[in-house]
Amino acid sequence: MNSFGNKFRISIFGESHGKSVGVIVDGCPAGISLCEDDFITDLLRRKSGAKGTTTRIEGDIPLIKSGVFNGKTTGAPILIEFENQNTRSKDYSNLIKHPRPSHSDFVAQKKYNGFQDYRGGGHFSGRITLGLVAAGVIAKKIISDIHITATLTQVAGNTNIDEEINNAIKNKDSVGGIIECVAKNMPIGLGEPFFNSVESQISSLAFSIPGIKAIEFGVGFAATKMTGSKFNDAIIDKKGTTKTNNAGGINGGISNGNNLIFRVAVRPTASIYSKQETYNFENNKIETLKIKGRHDLCIALRVPVIIEAITAIALADFSL
Amino acid sequence: MNSFGNKFRISIFGESHGKSVGVIVDGCPAGISLCEDDFITDLLRRKSGAKGTTTRIEGDIPLIKSGVFNGKTTGAPILIEFENQNTRSKDYSNLIKHPRPSHSDFVAQKKYNGFQDYRGGGHFSGRITLGLVAAGVIAKKIISDIHITATLTQVAGNTNIDEEINNAIKNKDSVGGIIECVAKNMPIGLGEPFFNSVESQISSLAFSIPGIKAIEFGVGFAATKMTGSKFNDAIIDKKGTTKTNNAGGINGGISNGNNLIFRVAVRPTASIYSKQETYNFENNKIETLKIKGRHDLCIALRVPVIIEAITAIALADFSL
Amino acid sequence: MNSFGNKFRISIFGESHGKSVGVIVDGCPAGISLCEDDFITDLLRRKSGAKGTTTRIEGDIPLIKSGVFNGKTTGAPILIEFENQNTRSKDYSNLIKHPRPSHSDFVAQKKYNGFQDYRGGGHFSGRITLGLVAAGVIAKKIISDIHITATLTQVAGNTNIDEEINNAIKNKDSVGGIIECVAKNMPIGLGEPFFNSVESQISSLAFSIPGIKAIEFGVGFAATKMTGSKFNDAIIDKKGTTKTNNAGGINGGISNGNNLIFRVAVRPTASIYSKQETYNFENNKIETLKIKGRHDLCIALRVPVIIEAITAIALADFSL
Amino acid sequence: MNSFGNKFRISIFGESHGKSVGVIVDGCPAGISLCEDDFITDLLRRKSGAKGTTTRIEGDIPLIKSGVFNGKTTGAPILIEFENQNTRSKDYSNLIKHPRPSHSDFVAQKKYNGFQDYRGGGHFSGRITLGLVAAGVIAKKIISDIHITATLTQVAGNTNIDEEINNAIKNKDSVGGIIECVAKNMPIGLGEPFFNSVESQISSLAFSIPGIKAIEFGVGFAATKMTGSKFNDAIIDKKGTTKTNNAGGINGGISNGNNLIFRVAVRPTASIYSKQETYNFENNKIETLKIKGRHDLCIALRVPVIIEAITAIALADFSL
Question: What ipTM describes this predicted complex?
Answer without folding.
Answer: 0.97
